Amino acid sequence: MSQVVKTAFDPKNMPFRRLGPSGLRVPVFSLGGWLTLGGTVIGDPVKEIIKVAFENGINMFDTAEGYAQGRSEIEMGRVIKELGYRRTDLVITTKLFFGTRKGPNDTGLSRKHIIEGTQESLERMGLDYVDVLFAHRPDYSTPMEEVVRAFNYVIEKGWAFYWATSEWSARDIEEAYHVAEKLNLIPPIAEQCQHHMLHRERPEKEYAPIYRKYGVGTTVWSALASGLLTGKYNNGIPPDSRFAAHSDFFKDTLNSLTQEEGQAKIQKVKDLTTLAETELGCSVTHLALAWVAKNPNTSTVILGASKPEQVVDNLKALEVIPKLTPDILDKIEAILQNKPAPAATFGRPALDAYGRL
Ligand SMILES: NC(=O)c1ccc[n+]([C@@H]2O[C@H](COP(=O)([O-])OP(=O)(O)OC[C@H]3O[C@@H](n4cnc5c(N)ncnc54)[C@H](OP(=O)(O)O)[C@@H]3O)[C@@H](O)[C@H]2O)c1
């Protein structure tokens, strides 16, 4: 990648956290490209979104080979080069599994696809390496030893510094750790999972032993439930919105919003809006993002944005994180009514109601 540096990174007031057990520092809020960058957003607007993020303390950008069949990686790589950012200032992550073509070896986590897929991703982005390479899904048709060995090969080649998982079960992550330990290889450091106020079971309960035993951190996706937690869908589907633009992909969600289950979610969003506005002086968007960021196992919350203004708006959540006192968190729980049941204690008191089990 060209080293013509036009703009040095200034973290401003962005807090940084370790990515899981690693020494890599990531901003509490990062930016991703699913459906947006290279998808519904192309050309100069991609540059405006990345530029505004970078100028506001975001130096971590997430994409995947499968996003817009590789166009997300192409657009992100092009823009980063044009903006003249120093490579060492950036944390760039991509993900392998879904591929850009449908051939028998163009997807999944075989050694062949991990190695060829990495090379193709780097070529699309115009980069020599990514910081973290994610396995975008588990591949039950490839032996775990092959997966762990292939990610280690990629790391040894210098094409990625770390590897990580996305939407793997706790059992899958355990297996990867055991295989890596047995072979004296590097295990995954993070899990890219869905986590938001309306989706909690896996990130808060299933992964609890993984956080405790291995210190795995999360790079959270869809913290706003694709926009539902902004309140923009409270009174129908705005034409200029993700659910309208991708109505096929979200058809189950759209259908559920007309049913009792979806309406109950909308009611929760409305009640959270009242809480945010009256007690915290913020929007429900800021509250929802701050709530995920506050979780002790969250390394970074990956923001999604179709416009630069959304990035700027969403970063106001940083001011809300310290306002989430135990009292406010209890009020949130009273609205959500979906806190995962703690692990069985057989009559003994739980150790920590807010953090690790
Ligand atoms: N590993 C995985 O399997 C996986 C899966 C999904 C996502 N991800 C990663 O996580 C990133 C974030 O996920 P996501 O995009 O689903 O996050 P999200 O925050 O739940 O949704 C982002 C969308 O919500 C709307 N929005 C955001 N801020 C807003 C605001 N302030 N006001 C009104 N609307 C707002 C925008 O859509 P509109 O303006 O178009 O309505 C935006 O594109 C992705 O880009 C990707 O990098 C990973």
UniProtKB/TrEMBL annotation:
Keyword vocabulary terms for this entry: NADP, Oxidoreductase
CDD domains: AKR_AKR6C1_2
Domain NADP-dependent oxidoreductase, residue spans: 31-336
Membrane-crossing segments per the record: none
Gene Ontology molecular function, alphabetical: oxidoreductase activity
Keyword NADP on entry: yes
Family label: Belongs to the shaker potassium channel beta subunit family.
Name this protein carries in UniProt: NADP-dependent oxidoreductase domain-containing protein
Naturally occurring in which organism (per UniProt): Serpula lacrymans var. lacrymans (strain S7.3) (Dry rot fungus)
Lineage, top ranks: Eukaryota, Fungi, Dikarya, Basidiomycota, Agaricomycotina
